[in-house]
Amino acid sequence: MSFEQKLLKTIRALILIGAIFGAICLWVVQWWLTHPKKQPIAFSHKIHVGQRQISCFFCHTGVEHGDIAGVPSVQDCMQCHQVVANEQVVANERPEIQKLTGYWERKQPIEWFKVYKVPKHVHFSHKVHIAFLAKRNPDALKDPGKFICAQCHGDVSQMSTIAAPVGTVMLLTGNANPNTSMGFCVDCHHANGGPMDCTACHR
Ligand code: HEC
Ligand code: HEC
Ligand code: HEC
Ligand code: HEC
Ligand code: HEC
User: Fold this and answer.
1) How far apart (Å, rounded) are the C-alpha atoms in residues 48 and 51?
2) Same structural domain for residues 128 and 185?
3) pLDDT tens digit string along 116-126?
4) CA-CA to 74 of 20 to 30 Å: which in 19, 25, 35, 82?
Protein backbone atom coordinates (compact mmCIF):
# COMPACT_ATOMS: atom_id res chain seq x y z
CA MET A 1 0.00 0.00 0.00
CA SER A 2 1.40 3.38 -0.98
CA PHE A 3 1.66 6.26 1.44
CA GLU A 4 -1.22 8.06 -0.31
CA GLN A 5 -3.45 5.04 0.00
CA LYS A 6 -2.66 4.73 3.71
CA LEU A 7 -3.34 8.42 4.23
CA LEU A 8 -6.66 8.16 2.39
CA LYS A 9 -7.65 5.18 4.53
CA THR A 10 -6.80 7.02 7.74
CA ILE A 11 -8.77 10.06 6.66
CA ARG A 12 -11.79 7.92 5.81
CA ALA A 13 -11.59 6.21 9.20
CA LEU A 14 -11.32 9.57 10.97
CA ILE A 15 -14.35 10.94 9.11
CA LEU A 16 -16.36 7.86 10.04
CA ILE A 17 -15.38 8.10 13.71
CA GLY A 18 -16.14 11.83 13.66
CA ALA A 19 -19.57 11.24 12.16
CA ILE A 20 -20.45 8.58 14.73
CA PHE A 21 -19.20 10.76 17.60
CA GLY A 22 -21.16 13.73 16.23
CA ALA A 23 -24.34 11.69 15.93
CA ILE A 24 -23.99 10.48 19.53
CA CYS A 25 -23.45 14.06 20.77
CA LEU A 26 -26.51 15.30 18.87
CA TRP A 27 -28.61 12.47 20.29
CA VAL A 28 -27.47 13.24 23.85
CA VAL A 29 -28.19 16.96 23.42
CA GLN A 30 -31.66 16.38 21.96
CA TRP A 31 -32.46 13.83 24.68
CA TRP A 32 -31.32 16.26 27.35
CA LEU A 33 -33.46 19.05 25.88
CA THR A 34 -36.59 16.99 25.31
CA HIS A 35 -36.79 14.15 27.88
CA PRO A 36 -39.58 14.60 30.42
CA LYS A 37 -38.25 15.42 33.85
CA LYS A 38 -39.37 13.11 36.66
CA GLN A 39 -41.74 14.45 39.30
CA PRO A 40 -40.88 13.59 42.95
CA ILE A 41 -43.89 11.22 43.08
CA ALA A 42 -45.35 9.43 40.05
CA PHE A 43 -48.71 11.18 40.34
CA SER A 44 -51.06 10.09 37.57
CA HIS A 45 -53.94 12.16 36.20
CA LYS A 46 -55.00 9.08 34.28
CA ILE A 47 -55.72 7.22 37.54
CA HIS A 48 -57.24 10.15 39.45
CA VAL A 49 -59.21 11.78 36.63
CA GLY A 50 -59.58 9.16 33.91
CA GLN A 51 -60.36 6.20 36.19
CA ARG A 52 -61.56 7.73 39.47
CA GLN A 53 -63.40 10.70 37.94
CA ILE A 54 -62.13 13.25 40.46
CA SER A 55 -62.91 16.77 39.22
CA CYS A 56 -60.14 19.19 38.19
CA PHE A 57 -61.75 21.79 40.46
CA PHE A 58 -61.43 19.48 43.48
CA CYS A 59 -57.63 19.57 43.36
CA HIS A 60 -56.91 22.78 41.45
CA THR A 61 -58.99 24.94 43.74
CA GLY A 62 -57.84 28.32 42.43
CA VAL A 63 -58.56 27.69 38.79
CA GLU A 64 -62.21 28.69 38.49
CA HIS A 65 -62.16 31.92 40.49
CA GLY A 66 -58.50 32.89 40.69
CA ASP A 67 -55.49 33.70 38.55
CA ILE A 68 -53.49 30.66 39.61
CA ALA A 69 -54.77 27.08 39.44
CA GLY A 70 -52.66 25.84 42.38
CA VAL A 71 -51.64 22.27 43.14
CA PRO A 72 -53.01 20.30 46.14
CA SER A 73 -50.99 20.15 49.36
CA VAL A 74 -49.77 16.90 50.93
CA GLN A 75 -52.59 17.30 53.43
CA ASP A 76 -55.13 17.37 50.57
CA CYS A 77 -53.69 14.14 49.15
CA MET A 78 -53.81 12.52 52.58
CA GLN A 79 -57.54 13.16 52.94
CA CYS A 80 -57.87 10.18 50.64
CA HIS A 81 -54.57 8.43 51.05
CA GLN A 82 -54.82 7.78 54.77
CA VAL A 83 -57.48 5.30 53.65
CA VAL A 84 -57.00 4.48 49.94
CA ALA A 85 -55.19 1.16 49.35
CA ASN A 86 -54.07 1.30 52.98
CA GLU A 87 -53.53 -2.44 53.42
CA GLN A 88 -51.29 -2.56 50.37
CA VAL A 89 -49.35 0.46 51.58
CA VAL A 90 -48.74 -1.19 54.93
CA ALA A 91 -47.68 -4.35 53.09
CA ASN A 92 -45.05 -2.36 51.14
CA GLU A 93 -46.85 -2.94 47.85
CA ARG A 94 -47.41 0.70 46.91
CA PRO A 95 -44.03 2.45 46.82
CA GLU A 96 -45.34 5.71 45.30
CA ILE A 97 -48.06 6.10 47.95
CA GLN A 98 -45.44 5.26 50.58
CA LYS A 99 -43.33 8.13 49.27
CA LEU A 100 -46.37 10.37 49.76
CA THR A 101 -46.80 9.12 53.33
CA GLY A 102 -43.11 9.91 53.88
CA TYR A 103 -43.67 13.56 52.94
CA TRP A 104 -46.68 13.62 55.28
CA GLU A 105 -44.72 12.21 58.23
CA ARG A 106 -41.79 14.58 57.66
CA LYS A 107 -44.26 17.49 57.23
CA GLN A 108 -42.40 18.31 54.04
CA PRO A 109 -44.08 19.90 51.00
CA ILE A 110 -43.71 18.14 47.63
CA GLU A 111 -41.72 20.22 45.18
CA TRP A 112 -43.52 19.55 41.87
CA PHE A 113 -41.80 21.22 38.96
CA LYS A 114 -43.94 23.19 36.54
CA VAL A 115 -44.57 22.27 32.95
CA TYR A 116 -46.77 25.29 32.20
CA LYS A 117 -45.18 28.57 33.09
CA VAL A 118 -45.15 32.02 31.54
CA PRO A 119 -42.31 34.49 32.20
CA LYS A 120 -42.75 37.07 35.00
CA HIS A 121 -43.46 39.91 32.57
CA VAL A 122 -46.55 38.11 31.21
CA HIS A 123 -49.91 38.36 32.94
CA PHE A 124 -52.17 35.32 32.72
CA SER A 125 -55.34 34.65 34.69
CA HIS A 126 -57.25 31.37 34.68
CA LYS A 127 -60.64 32.69 35.80
CA VAL A 128 -61.05 35.00 32.79
CA HIS A 129 -60.36 32.18 30.36
CA ILE A 130 -62.48 29.60 32.18
CA ALA A 131 -65.41 32.05 32.20
CA PHE A 132 -64.99 32.75 28.48
CA LEU A 133 -64.82 29.06 27.53
CA ALA A 134 -67.74 28.17 29.83
CA LYS A 135 -69.86 30.91 28.26
CA ARG A 136 -69.02 29.71 24.76
CA ASN A 137 -70.14 26.14 25.51
CA PRO A 138 -72.98 25.77 28.06
CA ASP A 139 -72.04 22.10 28.71
CA ALA A 140 -68.42 22.90 29.42
CA LEU A 141 -68.65 23.01 33.22
CA LYS A 142 -70.04 19.46 33.30
CA ASP A 143 -66.69 18.20 32.08
CA PRO A 144 -64.22 21.08 32.42
CA GLY A 145 -61.19 18.88 31.77
CA LYS A 146 -62.48 18.00 28.33
CA PHE A 147 -64.14 21.24 27.24
CA ILE A 148 -62.10 23.93 28.99
CA CYS A 149 -58.69 22.89 30.25
CA ALA A 150 -57.98 20.77 27.16
CA GLN A 151 -57.87 23.94 25.02
CA CYS A 152 -54.51 24.75 26.56
CA HIS A 153 -53.39 21.62 28.43
CA GLY A 154 -54.53 18.74 26.20
CA ASP A 155 -56.59 15.80 27.45
CA VAL A 156 -55.10 15.52 30.92
CA SER A 157 -57.46 12.66 31.91
CA GLN A 158 -55.44 10.32 29.69
CA MET A 159 -51.98 11.39 30.87
CA SER A 160 -49.99 9.33 33.38
CA THR A 161 -47.44 12.14 33.42
CA ILE A 162 -47.97 15.70 32.34
CA ALA A 163 -45.17 16.60 30.00
CA ALA A 164 -44.76 19.63 27.80
CA PRO A 165 -45.43 18.85 24.15
CA VAL A 166 -41.85 19.65 23.21
CA GLY A 167 -40.63 19.99 19.69
CA THR A 168 -38.38 21.99 17.44
CA VAL A 169 -40.31 25.04 18.65
CA MET A 170 -38.39 24.84 21.88
CA LEU A 171 -35.02 24.70 20.19
CA LEU A 172 -35.86 27.84 18.21
CA THR A 173 -37.63 29.91 20.88
CA GLY A 174 -36.19 28.57 24.12
CA ASN A 175 -39.75 27.92 25.37
CA ALA A 176 -40.24 24.26 26.27
CA ASN A 177 -43.98 24.47 25.76
CA PRO A 178 -45.64 25.71 22.57
CA ASN A 179 -48.92 26.13 24.49
CA THR A 180 -47.46 28.96 26.53
CA SER A 181 -45.79 30.71 23.61
CA MET A 182 -46.89 34.20 22.61
CA GLY A 183 -48.11 32.95 19.22
CA PHE A 184 -50.47 30.48 20.88
CA CYS A 185 -52.05 33.18 23.08
CA VAL A 186 -52.24 35.82 20.35
CA ASP A 187 -53.76 33.44 17.76
CA CYS A 188 -56.66 32.63 20.06
CA HIS A 189 -57.13 36.28 21.05
CA HIS A 190 -57.21 37.22 17.39
CA ALA A 191 -59.85 34.57 16.61
CA ASN A 192 -62.04 35.23 19.67
CA GLY A 193 -61.83 38.95 20.38
CA GLY A 194 -59.34 38.74 23.26
CA PRO A 195 -57.17 41.83 23.89
CA MET A 196 -54.40 42.31 21.32
CA ASP A 197 -52.40 45.24 22.71
CA CYS A 198 -49.02 44.47 24.18
CA THR A 199 -49.80 45.93 27.59
CA ALA A 200 -52.79 43.59 28.12
CA CYS A 201 -50.38 40.70 28.57
CA HIS A 202 -47.10 42.51 29.31
CA ARG A 203 -47.36 44.50 32.51
C1 HEC B 1 -56.25 14.31 42.77
C2 HEC B 1 -55.80 15.63 42.49
C3 HEC B 1 -55.80 16.16 41.07
C4 HEC B 1 -56.84 16.17 40.16
C5 HEC B 1 -58.24 15.59 40.31
C6 HEC B 1 -56.37 16.90 39.00
N7 HEC B 1 -55.06 17.28 39.19
FE8 HEC B 1 -53.91 18.31 37.89
N9 HEC B 1 -52.30 18.14 39.15
C10 HEC B 1 -52.31 17.52 40.38
C11 HEC B 1 -50.96 17.46 40.90
C12 HEC B 1 -50.53 16.84 42.23
C13 HEC B 1 -50.13 18.08 39.95
C14 HEC B 1 -48.60 18.25 40.00
C15 HEC B 1 -47.91 17.01 39.51
C16 HEC B 1 -48.00 16.79 38.04
O17 HEC B 1 -47.68 17.70 37.26
O18 HEC B 1 -48.39 15.68 37.61
C19 HEC B 1 -51.00 18.50 38.86
C20 HEC B 1 -50.56 19.16 37.73
C21 HEC B 1 -51.41 19.59 36.71
C22 HEC B 1 -50.98 20.34 35.54
C23 HEC B 1 -49.55 20.71 35.22
C24 HEC B 1 -49.13 21.95 35.93
C25 HEC B 1 -47.70 22.29 35.56
O26 HEC B 1 -47.49 23.35 35.01
O27 HEC B 1 -46.80 21.48 35.83
C28 HEC B 1 -52.07 20.55 34.76
C29 HEC B 1 -52.11 21.28 33.43
C30 HEC B 1 -53.18 19.94 35.42
N31 HEC B 1 -52.76 19.37 36.60
C32 HEC B 1 -54.46 19.93 34.92
C33 HEC B 1 -55.50 19.20 35.46
C34 HEC B 1 -56.79 19.02 34.80
C35 HEC B 1 -57.17 19.63 33.47
C36 HEC B 1 -57.53 18.23 35.62
C37 HEC B 1 -58.94 17.72 35.37
C38 HEC B 1 -59.15 17.06 34.08
C39 HEC B 1 -56.72 17.91 36.79
N40 HEC B 1 -55.50 18.50 36.65
C41 HEC B 1 -57.13 17.14 37.87
C42 HEC B 1 -53.43 17.04 41.03
C43 HEC B 1 -54.67 16.86 40.44
C1 HEC C 1 -60.30 12.13 46.21
C2 HEC C 1 -59.36 11.11 46.64
C3 HEC C 1 -57.91 11.22 46.22
C4 HEC C 1 -57.08 12.30 46.36
C5 HEC C 1 -57.42 13.70 46.88
C6 HEC C 1 -55.76 11.87 45.92
N7 HEC C 1 -55.81 10.57 45.52
FE8 HEC C 1 -54.24 9.44 44.87
N9 HEC C 1 -55.49 7.88 44.50
C10 HEC C 1 -56.83 7.85 44.79
C11 HEC C 1 -57.39 6.58 44.35
C12 HEC C 1 -58.84 6.14 44.50
C13 HEC C 1 -56.30 5.84 43.80
C14 HEC C 1 -56.34 4.45 43.19
C15 HEC C 1 -55.99 3.45 44.25
C16 HEC C 1 -55.94 2.04 43.71
O17 HEC C 1 -55.23 1.80 42.74
O18 HEC C 1 -56.63 1.20 44.26
C19 HEC C 1 -55.13 6.69 43.93
C20 HEC C 1 -53.84 6.29 43.56
C21 HEC C 1 -52.69 7.03 43.81
C22 HEC C 1 -51.34 6.56 43.62
C23 HEC C 1 -50.95 5.15 43.31
C24 HEC C 1 -50.63 4.79 41.94
C25 HEC C 1 -50.19 3.35 41.90
O26 HEC C 1 -50.23 2.80 40.82
O27 HEC C 1 -49.80 2.76 42.93
C28 HEC C 1 -50.49 7.60 43.96
C29 HEC C 1 -48.98 7.60 43.95
C30 HEC C 1 -51.32 8.71 44.35
N31 HEC C 1 -52.64 8.34 44.24
C32 HEC C 1 -50.82 9.94 44.74
C33 HEC C 1 -51.62 11.01 45.11
C34 HEC C 1 -51.10 12.33 45.43
C35 HEC C 1 -49.65 12.74 45.40
C36 HEC C 1 -52.18 13.10 45.73
C37 HEC C 1 -52.20 14.57 46.09
C38 HEC C 1 -51.63 15.46 45.11
C39 HEC C 1 -53.36 12.27 45.62
N40 HEC C 1 -52.99 11.02 45.23
C41 HEC C 1 -54.65 12.69 45.91
C42 HEC C 1 -57.55 8.86 45.40
C43 HEC C 1 -57.10 10.12 45.69
C1 HEC D 1 -56.33 29.71 27.96
C2 HEC D 1 -55.38 28.70 28.32
C3 HEC D 1 -55.59 27.90 29.60
C4 HEC D 1 -56.74 27.25 30.03
C5 HEC D 1 -58.10 27.20 29.36
C6 HEC D 1 -56.38 26.58 31.27
N7 HEC D 1 -55.06 26.84 31.57
FE8 HEC D 1 -54.04 26.12 33.15
N9 HEC D 1 -52.39 27.22 32.62
C10 HEC D 1 -52.32 28.03 31.50
C11 HEC D 1 -51.07 28.79 31.54
C12 HEC D 1 -50.61 29.81 30.51
C13 HEC D 1 -50.40 28.41 32.72
C14 HEC D 1 -49.09 28.99 33.28
C15 HEC D 1 -49.47 30.14 34.17
C16 HEC D 1 -48.33 30.85 34.88
O17 HEC D 1 -47.15 30.56 34.66
O18 HEC D 1 -48.65 31.74 35.68
C19 HEC D 1 -51.25 27.41 33.37
C20 HEC D 1 -50.93 26.75 34.56
C21 HEC D 1 -51.71 25.76 35.13
C22 HEC D 1 -51.34 24.97 36.29
C23 HEC D 1 -50.02 25.09 37.00
C24 HEC D 1 -50.11 25.30 38.45
C25 HEC D 1 -50.32 26.69 38.93
O26 HEC D 1 -50.45 26.83 40.16
O27 HEC D 1 -50.28 27.66 38.14
C28 HEC D 1 -52.37 24.11 36.55
C29 HEC D 1 -52.45 23.07 37.66
C30 HEC D 1 -53.41 24.39 35.57
N31 HEC D 1 -52.97 25.38 34.73
C32 HEC D 1 -54.63 23.73 35.55
C33 HEC D 1 -55.68 24.09 34.71
C34 HEC D 1 -57.02 23.52 34.82
C35 HEC D 1 -57.47 22.49 35.82
C36 HEC D 1 -57.76 24.12 33.82
C37 HEC D 1 -59.23 23.91 33.50
C38 HEC D 1 -60.18 24.07 34.60
C39 HEC D 1 -56.88 25.05 33.10
N40 HEC D 1 -55.65 25.00 33.69
C41 HEC D 1 -57.26 25.81 32.02
C42 HEC D 1 -53.25 28.11 30.50
C43 HEC D 1 -54.54 27.63 30.58
C1 HEC E 1 -58.91 29.71 24.07
C2 HEC E 1 -58.51 31.01 23.55
C3 HEC E 1 -57.50 31.80 24.37
C4 HEC E 1 -56.22 31.44 24.67
C5 HEC E 1 -55.48 30.16 24.26
C6 HEC E 1 -55.66 32.51 25.44
N7 HEC E 1 -56.59 33.50 25.63
FE8 HEC E 1 -56.39 35.19 26.78
N9 HEC E 1 -58.31 35.68 26.44
C10 HEC E 1 -59.16 35.03 25.56
C11 HEC E 1 -60.40 35.79 25.45
C12 HEC E 1 -61.60 35.45 24.56
C13 HEC E 1 -60.28 36.89 26.31
C14 HEC E 1 -61.31 37.98 26.58
C15 HEC E 1 -62.20 37.50 27.68
C16 HEC E 1 -63.24 38.52 28.09
O17 HEC E 1 -63.10 39.70 27.77
O18 HEC E 1 -64.19 38.10 28.77
C19 HEC E 1 -58.95 36.81 26.92
C20 HEC E 1 -58.46 37.71 27.84
C21 HEC E 1 -57.13 37.78 28.24
C22 HEC E 1 -56.58 38.84 29.05
C23 HEC E 1 -57.32 40.06 29.61
C24 HEC E 1 -58.02 39.72 30.87
C25 HEC E 1 -57.08 39.75 32.05
O26 HEC E 1 -56.81 38.70 32.63
O27 HEC E 1 -56.57 40.84 32.38
C28 HEC E 1 -55.23 38.54 29.21
C29 HEC E 1 -54.19 39.35 29.95
C30 HEC E 1 -54.98 37.30 28.49
N31 HEC E 1 -56.18 36.86 27.94
C32 HEC E 1 -53.74 36.68 28.42
C33 HEC E 1 -53.49 35.46 27.77
C34 HEC E 1 -52.21 34.80 27.71
C35 HEC E 1 -50.93 35.32 28.31
C36 HEC E 1 -52.39 33.63 27.02
C37 HEC E 1 -51.39 32.56 26.67
C38 HEC E 1 -50.60 31.99 27.76
C39 HEC E 1 -53.80 33.58 26.64
N40 HEC E 1 -54.43 34.70 27.10
C41 HEC E 1 -54.36 32.54 25.92
C42 HEC E 1 -58.91 33.86 24.89
C43 HEC E 1 -57.74 33.12 24.97
C1 HEC F 1 -52.18 37.52 24.42
C2 HEC F 1 -51.01 37.81 25.20
C3 HEC F 1 -49.87 38.57 24.55
C4 HEC F 1 -49.92 39.72 23.81
C5 HEC F 1 -51.15 40.50 23.36
C6 HEC F 1 -48.55 40.08 23.52
N7 HEC F 1 -47.69 39.15 24.07
FE8 HEC F 1 -45.65 39.19 23.98
N9 HEC F 1 -45.54 37.40 25.00
C10 HEC F 1 -46.63 36.71 25.47
C11 HEC F 1 -46.17 35.50 26.10
C12 HEC F 1 -47.05 34.42 26.75
C13 HEC F 1 -44.76 35.50 26.00
C14 HEC F 1 -43.79 34.46 26.55
C15 HEC F 1 -43.46 33.47 25.48
C16 HEC F 1 -42.45 32.45 25.92
O17 HEC F 1 -42.34 32.12 27.09
O18 HEC F 1 -41.80 31.94 25.01
C19 HEC F 1 -44.39 36.72 25.29
C20 HEC F 1 -43.08 37.09 25.00
C21 HEC F 1 -42.75 38.30 24.40
C22 HEC F 1 -41.40 38.71 24.13
C23 HEC F 1 -40.15 37.89 24.38
C24 HEC F 1 -39.61 38.12 25.72
C25 HEC F 1 -39.03 36.86 26.24
O26 HEC F 1 -39.32 36.49 27.36
O27 HEC F 1 -38.29 36.18 25.51
C28 HEC F 1 -41.45 39.95 23.56
C29 HEC F 1 -40.27 40.81 23.12
C30 HEC F 1 -42.84 40.30 23.44
N31 HEC F 1 -43.62 39.26 23.97
C32 HEC F 1 -43.33 41.49 22.91
C33 HEC F 1 -44.67 41.76 22.65
C34 HEC F 1 -45.13 42.95 21.91
C35 HEC F 1 -44.24 44.04 21.35
C36 HEC F 1 -46.49 42.87 21.87
C37 HEC F 1 -47.49 43.80 21.19
C38 HEC F 1 -47.36 43.91 19.76
C39 HEC F 1 -46.88 41.63 22.57
N40 HEC F 1 -45.73 41.00 23.01
C41 HEC F 1 -48.18 41.20 22.78
C42 HEC F 1 -47.97 37.10 25.38
C43 HEC F 1 -48.45 38.22 24.71
Assistant:
1) 6
2) yes
3) 989 999 999 99
4) 35
